[in-house]
């Protein structure tokens, strides 16, 4: 019909885009969105040694502008987010993509780099809540100077409340995160625009000449200021890490439409204020606001800082869950905090560890400016490793020349930031590096110890077991026995021990292997592989993605469609209680062997990770030597 074409319904993905974009605004951009609270202040602090002259203000703003454009907009939003593992992002996903090809030696190197980068994020998880909340509360120092001595105490009270409520999950309060952050970015934009209107000459900082002149004429001090400029991009890694929760399009949309304009206008507004009022160099963000707006602004900034902290804490939980499913860390308690969203998890051990660290950091440094001296070392190291892993992945897609040219640009900038941040080691930057180093040692020790312990398993095959049973038939007990084994179709020591000492087998024997694939999720129709070796012996392999959590009783129910019938009330799960004996054999340093033995003793049993009912479990002691 001419002039009256029927409107076509939007695809479901397009209809959900506004809601996803608003949700992403409340989770993904918290860190980078609260950087205006402290970043420019750190650049012109007494520690930095840069006076707020007109040339220096334009130079620093130029570096801020182009850092956000090159590192966040081009590197992460345009390029790195193309490296998705079936929709999932983050350094562990990138590590899996990069290590999926090449030689065994290159895979080992790439896995080591990825694990170290992931471990460094725990250091970020401690510092981000501390610096975000402390910088927000410091607005009270301007509104009421008498409160200066108690600002760290107030910040710690907020931190304790934040971490205490983590166990409730983000599902119930997530709906309000997006609107609050939308208001926050609107306030950032309005504050900055009001000062730009008073000093429009500050817009000249868009010209990269000012940044280049600042670096060329500033000598070593000018170069080291990059360590403070880097604070404006520290949340860039979160954009990639949270891609799996919201998808690329919502994150890209909100970055270019809302976040980037708001933070840039606010930074330029702070610079405009300094051009006219260089004496306002302390707490530049709060000095942009009129006096009557200070208390509401402190409240809004605190809410934004809490949301920023929530995002990095949730990221630490997700990172732990992914590392556990990939076999890089001992089993710890992981609780699902939402019945609808599988990605929302709560890890009590990590939560209380981060709380203790954040409170200790606030009490030790006592100001956001001092904390800024420690912040950035771990994140800049992670960004360097992300570029290296991205190059290893993109060279297979684009070829060596294109990938190397792009990586050279990004790596030059990343290494410049990392070098400038190294000076912070003496000012507390050693803290996140120490945390990252400890995390890396834990990951690799557990992985190596598991490999050494697995090599000692009795590699009796299922066929050999059948021949042994046929030659010397044992007594048969009613019901089903499920034996967990790491290698499909191999017989675990628990079965052999039970057979040797008790001379008995159940009427139905299931050799179950739970495999965690290097993909986020395995579809249900690809979950199970079953092989009936005999009428009473079956080999069952259950495959899960690293973002999923195994449920062994459900596996047995699903196996009924493949001809395996197991009554849950008559099923016994045989598990091994491993005792590690430290020996002098080669393969790992003795101190790491002792660490592995300690980790094994304190790791949760498989009944926790596989949701096996504890009343149906029979544990048999197994000794392994490392």
Task: Describe it.
There is one protein chain. This protein has 626 residues and is of the alpha/beta class. The protein has two domains: 433 residues, Up-down Bundle (Amino acid/polyamine transporter I), CATH 1.20.1740; 167 residues, no CATH class. Helix content is 60%, strand content 10%. The chain is built from 26 helices and eight strands. The strands form two sheets. Strands 5-6-4-3-7-8 form a six-stranded mixed sheet, with helices on both faces. Strands 1-2 form a two-stranded antiparallel ribbon. Strand 1 and strand 2 form a beta hairpin.
Task: Report Rg.
Answer: 28 Å
CATH architectural category of the largest domain: Up-down Bundle
First-residue to last-residue Cα separation: 79 Å
* CATH level-four homologous superfamily name of the largest domain: Amino acid/polyamine transporter I
As for the CATH topology of the largest domain, it is Amino acid/polyamine transporter I
Short description:
The protein contains 26 helices and 8 strands.
Name a few traits of the molecule.
single chain; 626 residues; alpha/beta; Amino acid/polyamine transporter I; 6-stranded mixed beta sheet; two-stranded antiparallel sheet; 60% helix; disordered N terminus
């Amino acid at each position: 019909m001419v002039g009256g074409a029927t409107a076509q319904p939007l695809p479901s993905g397009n209809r959900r885009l506004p809601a996803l974009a608003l949700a992403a605004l409340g989770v993904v951009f918290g860190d980078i969105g609260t950087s205006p609270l402290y970043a420019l202040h750190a650049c012109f602090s007494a520690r930095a040694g840069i006076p707020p002259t007109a040339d220096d203000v334009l130079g620093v703003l130029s570096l801020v502008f182009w850092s956000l454009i090159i590192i966040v907009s081009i590197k992460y939003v345009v390029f790195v987010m193309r490296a998705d593992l079936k929709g999932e992002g983050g350094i562990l996903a990138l590590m899996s993509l990069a290590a999926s090809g090449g030689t065994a030696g290159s895979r080992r190197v790439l896995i080591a780099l990825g694990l170290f980068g992931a471990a460094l994020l725990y250091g970020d998880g401690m510092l981000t809540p501390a610096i975000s909340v402390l910088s927000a509360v410091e607005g009270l120092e301007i509104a009421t100077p008498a409160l200066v001595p108690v600002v760290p105490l107030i910040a710690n009270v907020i931190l304790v409340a934040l971490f205490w409520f983590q166990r409730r999950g983000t599902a119930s309060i997530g709906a309000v995160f997006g609107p609050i952050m939308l208001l926050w970015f609107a306030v950032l934009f309005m504050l900055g625009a009001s000062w730009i209107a008073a000093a429009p000459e500050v817009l000249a900082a868009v010209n990269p000449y000012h940044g280049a002149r600042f670096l060329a004429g500033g000598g070593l001090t000018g170069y080291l200021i990059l360590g403070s400029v880097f604070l404006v991009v520290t949340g860039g890694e979160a954009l990639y890490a949270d891609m799996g929760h919201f998808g690329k399009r919502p994150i890209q949309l909100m970055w270019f439409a809302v976040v980037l304009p708001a933070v840039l206008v606010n930074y330029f507004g702070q610079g405009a204020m300094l051009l006219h009022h260089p004496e306002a160099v302390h707490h530049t963000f709060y000095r942009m606001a009129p006096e009557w707006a200070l208390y509401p602004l402190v409240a809004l900034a605190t809410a934004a800082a809490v949301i920023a902290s929530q995002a990095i804490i949730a990221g630490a939980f997700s990172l732990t869950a992914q590392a556990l499913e990939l076999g890089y860390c001992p089993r710890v308690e992981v609780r699902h905090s939402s019945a609808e969203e599988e990605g929302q998890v709560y890890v009590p051990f990590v939560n209380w560890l981060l709380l203790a660290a954040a409170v200790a950091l606030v009490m030790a440094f006592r100001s956001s400016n001092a904390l800024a001296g420690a912040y950035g070392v771990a994140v800049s190291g992670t960004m360097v490793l992300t570029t290296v892993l991205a190059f290893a992945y993109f060279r297979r897609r684009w070829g060596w020349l294109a990938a190397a040219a792009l990586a050279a640009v990004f790596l030059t900038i990343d290494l410049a930031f990392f070098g400038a941040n190294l000076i912070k080691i003496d000012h507390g930057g050693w803290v996140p590096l120490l945390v990252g180093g400890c995390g890396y040692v834990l990951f690799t020790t557990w992985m190596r110890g598991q490999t050494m312990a697995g090599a000692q398993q009795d590699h009796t095959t299922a066929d050999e077991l059948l021949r042994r049973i046929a030659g010397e038939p044992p007594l048969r007990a009613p019901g089903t026995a499920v034996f967990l084994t790491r290698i499909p179709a191999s017989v675990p020591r628990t079965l052999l021990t039970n057979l040797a000492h008790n001379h008995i087998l159940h009427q139905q024997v299931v050799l179950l292997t739970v495999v965690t694939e290097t993909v986020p999720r395995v579809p249900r129709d690809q979950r199970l592989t079953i092989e009936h070796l005999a009428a009473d012996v079956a080999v069952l392999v259950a495959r899960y993605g690293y973002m999923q959590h195994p449920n062994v009783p459900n596996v047995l129910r699903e196996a009924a469609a493949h001809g395996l019938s197991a009554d849950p009330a008559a099923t016994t799960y045989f598990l091994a209680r491993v005792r590690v004996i430290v020996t002098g054999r080669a393969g790992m340093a003795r101190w790491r062997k002792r660490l592995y033995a300690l980790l094994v003793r304190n790791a949760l049993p498989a009944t926790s990770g596989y949701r096996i009912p504890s009343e149906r479990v029979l544990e048999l002691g197994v000794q392994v030597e490392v």
